[in-house]
Design goal:
The complex is a heterodimer. Chain A is of the alpha+beta class. Helices cover about 65% and strands about 15% of the residues of chain A. The longest helix of chain A is centred in the C-terminal third of the chain and has 30 residues. Chain A is elongated. Classes of the chains: A alpha+beta, B mainly alpha.
């Protein structure tokens, strides 16, 4: 399984995590994900995920007017988003631990 | 054209292309999804001068990735996705339908009996309103001789019976059920009889086209074309006027000859000069196929073995005798109906 497939399952967590650090607008979130090491993340995927999380009630949004460029729409985590992130993070850690254990046992053979 | 304008155009075109590939989705969803795409892509474009299609890939793929990550159904063929939506909606509707209490009722055990019970009640009502005609029309229900009313009553009775059955949960009220069972069993025989008679009637009607109008047909399909009356003393009679049980003159259509040539009947005239069509025996002749105005002779008078009837005593009651002689002489009227008294105008 390559990174992009693994990423599909956990993009929600990644986006939520990025936004917990700081609010961000669409392209900003893409950049930060790529800088963090997820180079293969698709622009459309991030945009779509942001909209979905917003519709699910995990994010709030606000527009920041700007002199030079277009007005930017920023996304921020709300309480529900934070809780979802914590829950998902816990699940992820447990999942990763289980998978690690499996791999260790396999390696040990 | 300035870079900014070029960039803006590029973005706009890209957005529109993406929108085009989301055509199959509900417009509201698409609008919401693309709300900020223009801005977002403008940000993307501002970083670099490379056209968006190169950096982000073809709009089609972008649109697909967008749908998936946004949680919207992936587009198969437009047609198949529309088909899938329609099928899904139909399935939903069918499920809602099946859950409807009325349809649920029909699937309950014992429904067949509830329906039969309702039918029995409707039959009883029908028979109550008009015994003879309802009995004749079994298994169809007639109420007051009206089949339409019968249908309505049957439907109502069945509906009530089914509803009552569902309410009762138990097997309904045993006494009423037993009564209905007996009632229905008793009516099986007349019902079968009626059905048989109906099919026979149909059989007779099938002979229709071959029989000329106004003719008397024998059961084997052959046609009576003339009547030769004889008196009780065995003498042949002429100019006898015949009427049926409703007082209507008995008329026969002249048949065809062996060559297929129609026969012509010459009718006697009454006082007013009108032809009398029910005087027997009728005088029939063949029209010459060659057009010769002269007529050939018609069929010959038959010579049946005519019995002479014994003297009738007025008190003798009609009893079917094994001999060929009719038990009722023409002068002795049958018990019920008096002979019809049609207007008999004296012949010429």
């Amino acid at each position: 399984m390559d990174t992009s497939q693994l990423l599909k399952g956990v993009l929600d967590i990644a986006v939520l995590a990025v936004l917990r650090e700081a609010d961000g607008y669409g392209y900003d979130v893409v950049r930060r994900l790529r800088e963090a090491g997820l180079e293969e993340v698709g622009d459309a995927s991030v945009y779509g995920t942001l909209r979905r999380l917003f519709n699910a009630g995990c994010l709030t949004s606000y527009v920041v007017p700007s002199d030079e460029g277009p007005h930017r729409k920023y996304y921020a985590l709300n309480r529900a988003g934070r809780e979802t992130l914590e829950r998902s993070a816990k699940n992820w850690r447990e999942f990763a631990r289980t998978l690690d254990r499996l791999l260790q046992t396999e390696d040990a053979r | 054209m300035s870079t900014t304008t070029k960039r803006t155009l590029d973005v706009e075109r890209y957005v529109e292309a993406v929108r085009a590939h989301l055509r199959d989705l509900p417009a509201a969803d698409v609008a919401e999804l693309l709300e900020d795409l223009q801005q977002h892509l403008a940000e993307v474009a501002s970083e670099d001068d490379t056209p968006l299609a190169e950096r982000l890939g073809p709009p089609e793929r972008y649109a697909e990735e967008l749908r998936v990550s946004a949680g919207l159904p992936a587009s198969a063929d437009e047609a198949t996705s529309r088909l899938a939506t329609t099928t899904a909606r139909l399935a939903e509707a069918a499920e809602r339908w099946a859950a409807h209490p009325w349809l649920k009722a029909l699937r309950a055990p014992g429904v067949a009996w509830w329906i039969a019970r309702g039918y029995a009640v409707a039959l009883a009502i029908g028979l109550g309103t008009s015994w003879t005609s309802a009995l004749e029309m079994l298994p169809f229900v007639l109420v007051g001789r009206d089949p339409l009313a019968g249908m309505v009553v049957t439907l109502l009775a069945v509906a009530v019976s089914v509803a009552a059955g569902r309410r009762a949960r138990v097997y309904g009220r045993p006494a009423l059920d037993r009564l209905c069972t007996v009632f229905l069993l008793l009516l099986v025989f007349p019902a079968v009889g009626t059905l048989r008679a109906m099919t026979e009637q149909v059989h007779y009607e099938d002979l229709g086209p071959g029989v000329p109008e106004g003719a008397l047909a024998r059961p084997d399909g052959s046609v009576v074309t003339n009547v030769y009356p004889y008196g009780p003393d065995g003498r042949p009679l002429e100019r006898v006027l015949l009427y049926d049980q409703d007082g209507r003159p008995i008329e026969l259509t002249p048949p065809y000859s062996a060559e297929g040539v129609p026969m012509v009947t010459s009718y006697p005239l009454d006082d007013d000069g009108r032809p009398v069509t029910n005087a027997y025996p009728q005088h029939q002749a063949f029209r010459d196929p060659s057009g010769d105005p002269a007529y050939r002779d018609g069929p010959r008078r038959p010579s049946p073995d005519v019995p002479a009837l014994a003297e009738e005593s007025p008190s003798a009651s009609p009893s079917p005798a094994p001999s060929a002689a009719p038990s009722e002489a023409p002068t002795d009227a049958p018990s019920d109906a008096p002979p019809p008294s049609p207007e008999v105008s004296p012949g010429p």
